[in-house]
Amino acid sequence: MQSLQVDLGERSYPIYIGRGLLGQAQLFERHIAGRQIAIVTNDTVAPLYLEALCHTLAKYSITPIILPDGEAFKNWETLQLIFDALLAARHDRRTTVIALGGGVIGDMAGFASACYQRGVDFIQVPTTLLSQVDSSVGGKTGINHPLGKNMVGAFYQPKAVVIDTDSLRTLPSRELSAGLAEVIKYGLICDAPFLGWLESNVDALRALDDAALRHAIERSCAAKARVVGSDERESGLRAILNLGHTFGHAIETHMGYGVWLHGEAVAAGTAMALEMSRRLGWIAEAERNRALRLFIRAGLPIVPPVEMTPEHFLGHMAVDKKVLDGQLRLVLLRSVGDAVVTADYPAAVLQETLVANYQALFEQLRSQ
Ligand code: NAD
Ligand code: GLY
């Protein structure tokens, strides 16, 4: 088992990464203060892993809370189901909530933990690649609003993150690819050598090679822990973790939550951020192409939805959380491994980026 630390003073916590961790009671016990726990999961993950986790934690009084599966359910109504179950089973302030599932479950269970009786402990047990490399670390929790993705939420750190890489064996390959979008992101924003490693190992990752997966997860979590440790509440640096997300969130909101997977929207959104960085003269065409080829090899889209016009994008992007005083700040690349957050770009370049021919680029790169 590997273990990393997110350094946030009294809110610091460990990230455990390894095989078979769902069965290791002592890993959980050291982070559970009371006798009651609630395991929040969904109707896809519950049949796979709930019984095993309940067995591991059999000495506690457990309330399983099984939510409907999907991004479309990351909303107030579903959040309320968590509070209903906690209150019905008389959970007190010493209870610990365990999020067992992907990013949707982690974000909702974390937000519920931040709110229930003004805050109870929670532990992240992420079971998708995306949640293992990104959403379970860093304490961003929340739900979607029909007008904007992740628009309602709280910064609230877990007590621990327990990553059992065995859980990836049951993950559909489309979901594994979606997770790779966030893995590639770390290479692009702050770890250029990791991008080279990914080029050599993307096939092993897609084939679920455990050593490759553990390396990718550890390197990704280490990058995220570094960034979050220096800017927990996103007053500056942390925004670089949102490379491709401003365009990507527009795609998710416009297409309807769950139609494009989050990682797919991030991949196409990152293609747009790369294209804009190239048009600004910051990265070379060869660097853009190198990154796009990696997305394609990871099984990810680099072409935004054809039905989305520049006006659609600009309308959704105007409610992005990086808008300050009416100015849209974007995460762009000065070079590979060096991201910046800036509102200092000509509007014409953004416009050109929105109408660029990504389909032609895809055809060209695919055939090379
Ligand atoms: P998800 O939670 O919807 O999970 C994807 C699918 O895989 C779901 O159908 C789920 O039930 C299923 N699943 C989960 N684990 C499984 C397993 N082991 N085997 C088989 N099926 C399994 O999606 P996701 O990609 O994990 O997370 C996306 C969400 O995370 C989005 O809502 C996004 O906004 C959020 N997110 C949050 C942060 C953050 O910092 N909080 C960062 C990135 C993304
Ligand atoms: N996923 C972006 C962040 O955690 O800041």
From TrEMBL:
Domain annotation 3-dehydroquinate synthase N-terminal: ranges: 65-177
InterPro entries given in the database record: Dehydroquinate_synthase, DHQ_synth_AroB, DHQ_synth_fam, DHQS/DOIS_N, DHQS_C
Record: residues binding Zn(2+): 182, 245, 262
Residues holding NAD(+): 69-74, 103-107, 127-128, 140, 149
Enzyme Commission number(s) from the entry: 4.2.3.4
Cofactor(s) listed: NAD(+); Co(2+); Zn(2+)
Coiled-coil spans in chain: none
Superkingdom of origin organism: Bacteria
Annotated protein name in UniProt: 3-dehydroquinate synthase
